[in-house]
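Researcher: Quick test of sequence recovery. Tokens follow.
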């Protein structure tokens, strides 16, 4: 075929033949080959990221046993077999991404999530169907949705905000029951079309948010009490329900009377961090033109993920978060 240099030892005759045949490709075929190589590289990158799940936590996803043995390979992933319950599995088993197709596009899609792109734009960018990116969005966000701070320490801030209720996207039914709501009538001064969300944040940036069934004392207390360290000091804008809940919890409270023009007490007690977070969240959400209420927790988790990695969220971090490999850092001191 011509281009072989004389005397060069060929390690792999087949490979040489392959590279030789490249010379005869049309420009269009060369493009297809480049795409193919690109795809293979993406799948490999995704697979090696996925494999880390088992390498860091080598346990059976079914029974939790740690005696697992390699058991062949399939779809580019190592299979394992549990010595205790004999189930076979790979690193994707039991994750929200199990059995999703087009693995070669996952990192590309993760970049779309990092950029906060719509389902439609993501579908276009990844070259897949709208329904695919719709499904991906909620699979990728299933775990980030739950990845929130579990303890706030030191000075913490809480604020209540609202999102309009929406049944958007109902026709794409997901295997999850719609959120059950209380009565149909307006509740505690809120319009029936507003969904209350409580946002809490400490000065280390640990953030937790909660879609509330109802914005009353009991519901706020139920989420706040387990969240706040006993020696935490909570700043709020002294809204009535929040005020009452904090009193019931018995935590040190610094109500900031914003409506009376007070912004900061004693130089450090204010609600400016939580308010700024809420503003960023709302502004970011505007691009989605109203989000289906039952997916609201997914959007909140998505925003938390972006906010924690401000300006530097990489696709592999998104993918790791989607696989539950990106734990929320928990501040332990004040
Ligand atoms: Zn097992």
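Model:
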């Amino acid at each position: 075929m011509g281009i072989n240099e004389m005397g060069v030892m060929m390690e792999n005759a087949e490979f040489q033949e392959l590279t030789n045949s490249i010379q005869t490709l049309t420009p269009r075929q060369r493009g297809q080959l480049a795409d193919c190589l690109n795809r293979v590289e993406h799948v490999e990158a995704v697979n090696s990221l996925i494999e880390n799940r088992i390498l860091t936590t080598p346990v059976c996803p079914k029974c939790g046993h740690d005696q697992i043995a390699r058991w062949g390979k399939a779809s580019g992933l190592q299979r394992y077999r549990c010595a205790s319950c004999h189930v076979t599995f790979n690193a994707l088993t039991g994750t929200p991404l199990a059995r999703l197709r087009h693995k070669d596009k996952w990192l590309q899609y993760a970049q779309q999530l990092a950029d906060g792109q719509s389902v439609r734009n993501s579908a276009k960018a990844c070259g897949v169907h709208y329904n695919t990116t719709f499904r991906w969005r909620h699979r990728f966000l299933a775990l980030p949705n739950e990845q929130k701070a579990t303890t706030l320490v030191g000075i913490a801030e809480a604020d209540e905000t609202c999102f309009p209720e929406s049944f958007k996207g109902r026709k794409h039914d997901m295997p999850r029951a719609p959120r059950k709501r209380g009565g149909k009538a307006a509740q505690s001064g809120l319009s029936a079309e507003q969904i209350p969300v409580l946002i809490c944040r400490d000065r280390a940036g640990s953030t937790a948010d909660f879609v509330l069934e109802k914005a009353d004392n009991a519901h706020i207390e139920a989420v706040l009490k387990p969240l706040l360290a006993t020696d935490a000091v909570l700043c709020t804008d002294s809204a009535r329900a929040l005020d009452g809940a904090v009193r019931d919890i018995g935590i040190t409270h610094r109500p900031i009377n914003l409506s009376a023009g007070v912004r900061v007490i004693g130089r450090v007690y204010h609600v400016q961090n939580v308010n700024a977070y809420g503003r960023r969240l709302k502004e970011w959400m505007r691009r989605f033109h109203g989000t289906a209420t039952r997916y609201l927790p997914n959007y909140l988790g998505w925003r938390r993920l972006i906010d924690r990695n401000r300006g530097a969220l990489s696709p592999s971090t998104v993918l790791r978060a989607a696989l539950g490999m990106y734990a929320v850092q928990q501040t332990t001191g004040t």
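The chain has a mean pLDDT of 87.
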